[in-house]
Amino acid sequence: MGEFDLIARYFKRPVRRSPLGVGDDCALLAPAPGMQLAVSTDLLIEGRHFLSTVDPRRLGHKCLAVNLSDLAACGAKPLAFTLGLALPQADEAWLAPFAQGLLALADTHGCELVGGDTTRGPLAISITVFGEVPTGQALLRSGARPGDEVWVSGTLGDARLALEVFRGTRQAPQAVFEAARERLECPVPRVSLGLALRGVASAAIDVSDGLVGDLGHVLAASGVGATLRAEQVAALPALALSVQDRLDFALAGGDDYELAFTAPAAARDAVLAAGRASGTAVHCIGVIEAAPGLRLVDAAGHAVVRPVAAFDHFA
Amino acid sequence: MGEFDLIARYFKRPVRRSPLGVGDDCALLAPAPGMQLAVSTDLLIEGRHFLSTVDPRRLGHKCLAVNLSDLAACGAKPLAFTLGLALPQADEAWLAPFAQGLLALADTHGCELVGGDTTRGPLAISITVFGEVPTGQALLRSGARPGDEVWVSGTLGDARLALEVFRGTRQAPQAVFEAARERLECPVPRVSLGLALRGVASAAIDVSDGLVGDLGHVLAASGVGATLRAEQVAALPALALSVQDRLDFALAGGDDYELAFTAPAAARDAVLAAGRASGTAVHCIGVIEAAPGLRLVDAAGHAVVRPVAAFDHFA
Prior knowledge:
Two copies of one chain form a homodimer. By secondary structure, chain A is an alpha+beta fold. In chain A, 35% of the residues lie in helices and 25% in strands. In chain A, strand 3, helix 3 and strand 4 form a beta-alpha-beta unit. The mean pLDDT of chain A is 90.
């Protein structure tokens, strides 16, 4: 199977909304009047972002999910994506389920594959995703203000358990492991919540490298600090974890693909309504303060110190 | 040096036109009213698209050049790009010249780096480029009509000589090799010509995998065939090559990054004017016909048969 057969067989589909889809030198996109185009790129590498043994259907899902998560963090509605794919060989037993997992999630969000590039090489998957957001309404990292509350969607830290089981540092009953693995390999991008938070949240980011690091980007971009309540943070994992792991995995788990966001205290009801409207749990875990830095306190207000850091690909 | 330091040091620059550049979950783009956004993606892999020994400055140039070439083939004006970069290590002696080569070409075309992703992994570079083109004016592959003339910009086949010298199948004097290597490693995207061909060319494509294969995409998309004159094709290489190599390298060289395009015979003067206006040589090499297939003829009209094929990454 050649490169062009491969594209035609697995990735070329009728394009509905894009003026021009897969198969010309460029795809053409036309955001609606009054809309800005939100663009995000992720590059996933075997052995770094996923194991060679991962189910290709789940991998296809995840590659797009992590990009949709970036759109969600901007409050953008998914429109289209391009796919760059380096493959060791054109293996149909791998490509068919990979394409199915990828395109099933794309269809769920009405996000069309409009272009791409395939080549032979060590397995690498590069997706650039496009969404639209009304001009001036994108959720940015820079909008958090002292007094705002800090919120997190869904659950944090469960994916990390699966990673630690793979690494051999933790053990878990089979059912717990499978649930953690589902979180690691099949994240659900919080697209609906992101849309519902337009005009409500003051700042947002998606939690992919761990809460401490990603919330840290919001604090840095906004020129503020925050205090988080350890008790609420430790309640973020859904799975049965030790007390220490609950806190550490929630603070620095990685691969969560939840939204961390801030909103004025007066918007609390609107935040809860956005959560209900999108079918996504939202949890208030702290408060933005003028003093720089990220602090963690117990119920009595005493500092809690944990040796956690964000994930850095080059640290 | 960590991932975020790396981005900040080499790739974060003031963004002038994009509403939001590097450093948030998404970049925001807003094409001007009446414009469509043209999007193209390329993925370059060490050992497949470039040698590990290539000058990183030239590699930075080429990674963006091959994407700008796709915009040129659509008649789109470059606006912005995203960069996905997998690196074995954060090596400043490599990153600094790579970024310089990349950003120098970007500046030449007013094309802003608006987002990206860096990770550790086997060296891979994924660029998605954005351009704008007035709605309905993009040059497509599907517009060639019987009677149109077939044109090629610049020179074809010279880059292939460098590749064959690297492979050890050809020898060349040092000055000839250096010129061929410059063509291979530093292609000049025909952006100005693409813009000048709006409203003039009936179809266009960029020649990256060889003329036979790429022109073949135009013929297939347009539902037509073509006859090329061997004498004109063999005149396309600029460098001193054997008679057989001239024809074969021009037909199936690879890495040319010239434009192949078609235009009605009545538009000949307009094509020549577009070439002059953009400072790019243009050569008429054949004619579009209703009969499917690509034919090659000598000056007497007799068929010329050459065993050439397009480059296919999975063949």
